[in-house]
Structure formats: C-alpha cells, structure tokens
Amino acid sequence: MSFDGASIPFWLIHIATLGVFFVPFHWSNVVAFLVAYALGGFGIMGGYHRYFSHRSFKTGRVFQFVLAALGTLTSQKGVLWWSGHHRNHHKHSDTPQDIHSPRRGFFWSHALWFLAPKYMETSASQRKEFAQYPELAFLNDNWVLGPVVLCATMLAVGGLPWLFWGGFLAIVAMWHATFTVNSLAHVWGSRRYKTTDTSRNNALLAIITLGEGWHNNHHHYQSSARNGFFWWEVDMTFYVLKVLSWVGVVWDLRVPPDWVLAGAAGPPRADAPVAAADVITTA
C-alpha cells in the first residue's frame, strides 16, 4: 500500500509532541490537554459516531453543527467522511470488505488505513443524506480548520506549553484512542453477545474512549446512544448526552430495550426499529 504527501502532517504532529519535554511543566498544561481531549473526544464519540453514523439521538441544526465542529478538533477528517467509512465498517465488519479489520494486521487496522489514498473520498451516500446542510459539507471538506483553530487557540492562550500539550499531544492522543476501537476492540476483551464479527467489550478502552470500549454491546445493538448497557459500564459520552437531554439540547436518546439487556437470542441488527419504550424523550 502506497502513501502520498497527505500523510506527512500525521507524522510531523507525532514528532511535534516531543515538545512537551522541552517546555516548563505546569499543571495548567495538563488541564489544557484534558479540555482539548474531552471536547474533541465528545465530538468524535458523541457526534461523528453516535449521531452522524448511527443517528442514535436527535438534535437541532445548531448543535448538529457544533458536534461536527468539535469532531474536527481531533484531526480525523470530515464528519461525512468519517461516518461514511464507519457505516461501511458495520456493513462489512471483519470481512474482506471491512477496510480496517484487525484481520488485515494490527498496524493497518490501527492507523495505516486512515492514511491510505484509496480511502480519502467521502461517500456519495453521506453527502446525499446531509445535502440540506451545506455547513456540514463545508466542515467536511475543510476539516483542517479544526486542528488549526485548536492549536492557534492553545498558542494564543497558553503559549508554547499549551500548544504542545493542548494542541499536538491532545490530537495524537485522540487519534490513538479512537484507533484502538478498530485495532484492539476486536481482539482484546470479552464477548457478551454472539455477533457476526469479533467485537469485544473492554473496560480500559471504554475509559480512554469515553465509552466506545463497550464495542460488543455496540455491534449487537448499534442504534443505541448508550454503549455501556449496564450501570457498571462507564460511558462518559452517554452521561454527557443525558445531561444535555435534561436541558433540551438533544432528545429521543435511544437505549437498549429489555430483550437486548437480557441477551435475547437473535441476529445482530444494523439499525433496530425503535419502540416507544426504547427512547428517552426530554422536552
């Protein structure tokens, strides 16, 4: 597999993270890192993934834009590009058509697929589905504005220390946290449900990915806004969505019904019908 010049920034940002060792340490640097990680992580996990890929809750046009904008902070390309490839993953999970299955090798599934020129295009179906929102198409095609704004803000507010910690290091951490769901959550962990793929639940991955580590749960019932199906399965993304539902920013949060929680037999469903009992509605 060949790679072109578009992957150069990916490697340069990794090198730039070494700057954290050459600037004075202050706890404010860690705060800057955590703030950037939390905002970008929620943009990816709550926005790119649970909203744009799976439509597991509803929101208005303004917050829809906010979710897409937060996702760009992670430098994981555009929202329509990301959600289109993720839907492809679920359609072909762990088959030869799955573009980032770990069956094709750890490094390929973790990051190399993300850099391959072959997969740079945004699917036409995603553009068509969100065609009535030109602002999303703009963010999708100009996603680089996200990491630029993040790094410029960190530099302006906190100087070089914040640029390295809240900018470069946060971006690299958000990359690899997300990538572990592709590379590790299909090989490391437990399987509650007999899905047609190799998805697994992993509590450690759930912590660093704000709830995405409950991957076997997710593959069994993909339309849920809650990946941690049980109270002991920490899912920070869902907690934030639940709070937002209390103030009316989001609504109709889909949650797993009783038959899913009980481990009911039946084939995995790509987008299970939503009954009234499966939805949390907050006016």
Q: Strands, helices and their partners?
A:
Layout: H1 8-16, H2 27-53, E1 58-59, H3 61-72, H4 79-91, H5 106-115, H6 124-129, H7 134-141, H8 145-183, H9 203-208, H10 215-220, H11 236-246, E2 250-251, E3 253-254, H12 258-261, E4 279-280
Helix pairs in contact: 2-3, 2-4, 2-8, 3-7, 5-8
Characterise the protein shown here.
By secondary structure, the protein is an all-alpha fold. It has one domain. It is built from 12 helices and 4 strands; from the N terminus they run ααβαααααααααββαβ. The strands form 2 sheets. A two-stranded antiparallel sheet has the order 1-2. Strands 3-4 form a two-stranded antiparallel sheet. The chain is globular.
Secondary structure tally, helices: 12
Low-confidence stretches: 264-283
Q: Major beta sheet, specifics?
A: 2 strands, antiparallel
In the sheet with the most strands, the strands line up as 1-2
For the CA atoms, what is the radius of gyration? 18 Å
- Which oligomeric form is depicted? single chain
Q: pLDDT average, as an integer?
A: 89
The SSE string, one letter per element, is HHEHHHHHHHHHEEHE
What structural category do the secondary elements indicate? mainly alpha
The first-to-last residue Cα distance is: 50 Å
Spatial shape: globular
- Whole-number total of structural domains: 1
Write a compact overview of the structure shown.
The protein is mostly helical and 283 residues long. 53% of the residues lie in helices and 3% in strands. Helix 2 crosses helix 4 and helix 3 packs parallel to helix 7.
